[in-house]
Structure to design on (1081 residues):
């Protein structure tokens, strides 16, 4: 049974989104996603300053058996990539919703409202439907 | 099997060396004209070892391998059949080995005759109109094939066709190749019986369709029964059909890709035509084309004028997709394939398809009788078939990987595991025609014994192998703490 | 037949087990109209004795000329042990080492190869080999586009002194993905790429610069200046090198202040026979920071569950069988057998043997050039040091001269007319350690007679 925190929003491609106090958002992959990938061995995060569009592949997470793109849940500009993950990719396995965040993003005007994000309940339904 | 072997650098002693192999020292004067700024300051740290210890080291390393010569190797999709010794011996005659690739054609008529006749034989067995031999592996042949499809559409001014359709069960090389050729991949599903879903195909094709890549028999080990309808749909939409020859062994001498409607194919000579796999190459991925793609064949091709053979190059094929190797691809591998085809002849090739299929269907039937689940029990096996162990994984917590590893302890190389991705906990098993009934029976006995063990003492299976030089390796550690070159102090 | 061991009794019993009566019944799912009856166009079988005779005759027909051809494929002494071990069935007939526990021999050999090639090139990390030198150049260009995050142009500068076939293979392989290859002119007096020719690219978006050392003419490029220019302008450097030469020449890892970013080359000189052009192998090395952009197999050392060291394929998530359409390349194989031969060759030669081989090649080529250019009508094309091969200019078209030499059992070099028409009647010649002073004298004397006969005609 995956952990789906109630204070986050989610995407169908298994990213989570946390709104921070300054209006920017923090993005990571869900507990379900890290479990499906297995032990992560490499993570590539975007550089600060990069502009990304919703749905654009902007990070890569890699385990020994799979490599997966992470898609930007909304349009905006990257304010930080989590550099710690380069040396310690396993952080995503242990703390997917905390220290294992991938990037922070300053949403473009109206992007947050336009993003197709799921509530925790809806994401849980998606997992149930996928058999997770 | 033998114990571990030290890394060769650990045998190294300063000043030692296989000096019998070295030329005489020409002295420093020989290098007087080389500017110091372009010289190497320190010699490269290669091992300093004698000839006998080098021979022993690599002989011992070889003994840590499973191979066709030592073990049954039923690796699905890889066609691990016997590599006849004659093919190696006669391809390594001094006259062939010593020939420089840029030597004049006057001094290569023997070699060129073999290449020309190989082209002709491959045309005959595949039903294609032209063959080029230079691609150096299956994936390289795929690249040539898709590049020809693109070149064909471009030459007709049809510039927007950049979509390649692949069934979801396709080899990973198919989508990777399409990307290398600048194409976009569209995956389509297969139905419960393993055939392409025609409705999905009809919806996928259109004015952007460059072509479809198919393996037939498919990676699911079954023949695509509606191939003629597939060909009709794709051709009517203006696309071309690409045949991935990975499974050609199944139908050799029985059905030809050209007759099925394929426009371009690659052949894995290291599978169907028994050139060695060499621990991962060299392969050879000759390509064949229907007449409309003849102008686009990769260079070089061997032509014949009267009784003389010659290379066809840019001037002869101005629309060619170009050169894919520095010279003539894996020429020595091509010679081995040529020798193999001449040894078999037309009747032998037909026997290959028949007996490869016989062995696969026999092994499938025996495994099913022994209680294993086939992925497609209603279908005939081609030259290979899929067993799924999802029941064992669910009920016993013993996976396909565990079975695979335990087979090693029984002296059998594991079948292909976890491919195709479509079938959970699968083993893709390809016995090939060169294995005897006795070997197949012994494999069934080993599988049955592992099943029994999985029920009674599953820990023995899940911790296998127990008799190999190493136990299961930590792949996560390998990827996180990369140790890719030996260092004197390095500890793994 | 066809190496099939079945007896008639086996076949009968197997068909009975399956529940069919004839072999043909096993093909009943294939539409009948597609099934063929026989393979017209394929000859009848030969037995091993017959094919042995045919192949021996054909191999003998190709003769054994005295060859001064190089141009990317070099005749070197190959110790007998190299192929005696390489063709052992355990190496020869094994598959790609996916089942690591049953493939430690191949895996450890690759690890040793990676170590030797990294040390030879002075680079941090090597893969398990590519198809050949030309395809390695093409893959290096694609890799540079992935690795150079500061460049968006996918634009590669390629000196005209890079092997013409490598340039063609790079275009055929990579142009479909939008890469642009732009040719840099060479100095026709010196036969090298002037660093000044790069000035016009300053301020432009360039992804990578290829540098071949020694270049196609055998001339030595100013690799330090070219490399430093590239790095000063956010351009990656792809080195294309001859492995034999690296025993003596500065390795790519030490070019300029920072070293090359990717180094590739043709591995054939390391124990692989000429064999009409293949199978050879390409090698590819890079910096650790780019290892995930590198295509091809890579082996790593790790531990097993019992804590013992062992070897396994690693970084596989870059590859086609996992990453599919987003893989770094579609490549599946390396040239495993050739890589095995090269690892044994490098072990036997060591740094000292390889340095002697390189020095002897260099000495022989100098002797060859000195001997031939003493003849009237023959002069060197370029001034300055060469390594291992050189370009000569004749006072008449090269093709008929080469043809006359071949008729007398000598391959006199490569006619550059089709590749570099601006040079006139130019000939690329090479003499390796396999050539004796007597061989060189034979070439000189035969060329002298050939040229005299041509003048008289």
């Amino acid at each position: 049974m995956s952990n789906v925190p109630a204070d986050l929003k989610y995407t169908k491609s298994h990213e989570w989104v946390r709104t921070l106090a300054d209006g920017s958002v923090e993005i990571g992959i869900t507990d379900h996603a890290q479990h499906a990938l297995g032990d992560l061995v490499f993570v590539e995060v975007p550089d600060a300053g990069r502009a990304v569009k919703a749905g654009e592949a902007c990070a890569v997470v890699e385990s020994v058996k799979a490599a997966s793109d992470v898609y930007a849940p909304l349009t905006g500009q990257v304010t930080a990539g989590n550099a710690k993950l380069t040396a310690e990719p396993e952080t995503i396995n242990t703390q997917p919703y905390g220290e294992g965040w991938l990037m922070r993003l300053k949403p473009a005007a109206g992007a947050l409202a336009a993003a197709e994000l799921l509530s925790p309940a809806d994401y849980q339904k998606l997992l149930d439907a996928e058999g997770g | 099997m033998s114990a571990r072997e030290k890394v060769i650098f650990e045998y190294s002693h300063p000043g030692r060396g296989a000096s019998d192999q070295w030329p005489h020292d020409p002295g420093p004067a020989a290098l007087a004209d080389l500017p110091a700024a372009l010289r190497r300051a320190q010699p490269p740290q290669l091992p300093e070892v004698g000839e006998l210890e080098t021979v022993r080291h690599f002989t011992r390393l070889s003994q840590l391998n499973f191979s066709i010569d030592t073990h049954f190797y039923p690796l699905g999709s890889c066609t691990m059949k016997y590599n006849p010794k004659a093919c190696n011996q006669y391809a390594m005659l001094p006259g062939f080995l010593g020939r420089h690739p840029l030597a004049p054609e006057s001094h290569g008529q023997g070699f060129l005759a073999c290449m020309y006749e190989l082209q002709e034989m491959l045309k005959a067995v595949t039903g294609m109109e032209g063959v080029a031999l230079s691609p150096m592996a299956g994936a390289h042949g795929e690249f040539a094939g898709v590049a020809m499809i693109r070149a064909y559409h471009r030459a007709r001014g049809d510039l927007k066709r950049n979509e390649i359709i692949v069934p979801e069960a396709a080899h990973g090389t198919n989508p990777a190749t399409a990307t290398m050729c600048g194409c976009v991949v569209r995956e389509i599903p297969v139905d419960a019986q393993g055939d392409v879903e025609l409705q999905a195909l009809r919806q996928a094709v259109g004015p952007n369709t460059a072509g479809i890549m198919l393996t037939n028999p498919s990676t699911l080990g079954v023949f695509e029964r509606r191939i003629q309808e597939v060909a009709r749909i794709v051709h009517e939409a203006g696309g071309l059909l690409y045949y991935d020859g990975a499974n050609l062994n199944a139908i050799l001498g029985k059905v030809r890709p050209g007759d099925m409607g394929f426009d371009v194919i690659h052949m894995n000579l290291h599978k169907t035509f028994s050139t060695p796999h060499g621990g991962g190459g060299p392969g050879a991925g000759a390509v064949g084309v229907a007449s409309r793609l003849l102008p686009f064949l990769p260079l070089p091709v061997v032509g014949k004028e009267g009784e003389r053979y010659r290379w066809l190059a840019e001037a002869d094929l101005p629309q060619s997709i170009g050169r894919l190797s520095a010279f003539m691809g894996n020429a020595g591998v091509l010679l081995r394939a040529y020798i193999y085809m001449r040894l078999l002849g037309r009747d032998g090739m037909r026997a290959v398809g028949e007996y490869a299929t016989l062995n696969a269907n026999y092994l499938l039937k025996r495994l099913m009788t022994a209680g294993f689940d086939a992925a497609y029990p209603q279908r005939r096996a081609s030259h290979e078939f899929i067993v799924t162990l999802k029941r064992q994984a669910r009920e016993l917590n013993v996976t396909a990987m565990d079975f695979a590893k335990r087979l090693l302890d029984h002296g059998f190389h594991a079948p292909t595991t976890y491919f195709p991705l479509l079938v959970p906990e699968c083993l893709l098993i390809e016995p090939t025609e060169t294995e005897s009934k006795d070997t197949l029976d012994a494999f069934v006995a080993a599988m049955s014994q592992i099943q029994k063990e999985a029920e009674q003492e599953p820990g023995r299976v899940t911790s296998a192998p127990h008799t190999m030089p190493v136990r299961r390796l930590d792949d996560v550690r390998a990827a996180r703490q990369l140790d890719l070159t030996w260092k004197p102090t390095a500890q793994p | 037949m066809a190496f099939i061991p079945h007896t008639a009794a086996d076949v009968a019993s197997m068909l009975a087990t399956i529940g069919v009566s004839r072999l043909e019944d096993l093909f009943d799912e294939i539409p009948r109209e597609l099934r063929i009856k026989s393979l017209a166009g394929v000859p009848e079988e030969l037995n091993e004795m017959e094919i042995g005779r045919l192949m021996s005759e054909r191999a003998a027909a190709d003769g054994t000329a005295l060859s001064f051809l190089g141009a990317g494929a070099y005749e070197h002494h190959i110790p007998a042990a190299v192929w005696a071990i390489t063709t052992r069935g355990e190496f020869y007939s094994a598959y790609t080492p996916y089942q690591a526990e049953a493939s430690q021999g191949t895996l450890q050999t690759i690890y040793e190869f990676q170590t030797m090639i990294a040390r030879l090139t002075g680079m941090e990390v090597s893969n398990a080999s590519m198809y050949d030198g030309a395809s390695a150049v093409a893959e290096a260009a694609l890799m540079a586009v992935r690795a150079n995050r500061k460049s968006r142009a996918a634009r590669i500068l390629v000196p005209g002194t890079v092997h013409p076939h490598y340039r063609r293979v790079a275009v055929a392989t990579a142009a479909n993905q939008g890469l642009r290859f732009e040719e840099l002119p060479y100095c026709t007096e010196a036969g090298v790429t002037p660093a000044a020719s790069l000035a016009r690219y300053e301020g432009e978006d360039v992804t990578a610069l290829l540098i071949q050392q020694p270049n196609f003419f055998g001339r030595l490029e100013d690799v330090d200046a070219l490399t430093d220019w590239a790095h000063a302008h956010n351009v990656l450097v792809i080195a294309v090198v001859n492995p034999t030469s690296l025993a003596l020449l500065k390795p790519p890892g030490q070019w300029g202040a920072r070293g090359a970013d990717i180094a590739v080359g043709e591995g054939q000189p390391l124990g692989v026979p000429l064999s009409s052009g293949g199978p050879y192998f390409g090698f590819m090395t890079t910096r650790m920071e780019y290892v995930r952009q590198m295509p091809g197999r890579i082996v790593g050392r790790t531990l097993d569950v019992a804590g013992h060291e062992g070897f396994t394929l690693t970084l596989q998530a870059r590859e086609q069988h996992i990453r599919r359409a987003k893989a770094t390349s579609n490549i599946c194989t390396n040239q495993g057998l050739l890589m095995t031969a090269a690892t044994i060759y490098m072990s036997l030669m060591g740094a000292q043997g390889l340095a002697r081989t390189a020095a002897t090649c260099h000495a022989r080529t100098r002797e060859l050039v000195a001997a031939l250019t003493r003849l009237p009508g023959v002069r060197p094309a370029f001034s300055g040091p060469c390594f291992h091969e050189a370009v000569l200019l004749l006072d008449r078209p090269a093709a008929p001269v080469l043809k006359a030499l071949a008729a007398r059992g000598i391959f006199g070099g490569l006619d550059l007319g089709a590749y570099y028409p601006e040079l006139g009647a130019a000939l690329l010649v090479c003499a390796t350690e396999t050539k004796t002073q007597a061989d060189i004298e034979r070439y000189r004397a035969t060329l002298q007679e050939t040229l005299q006969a041509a003048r008289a005609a």
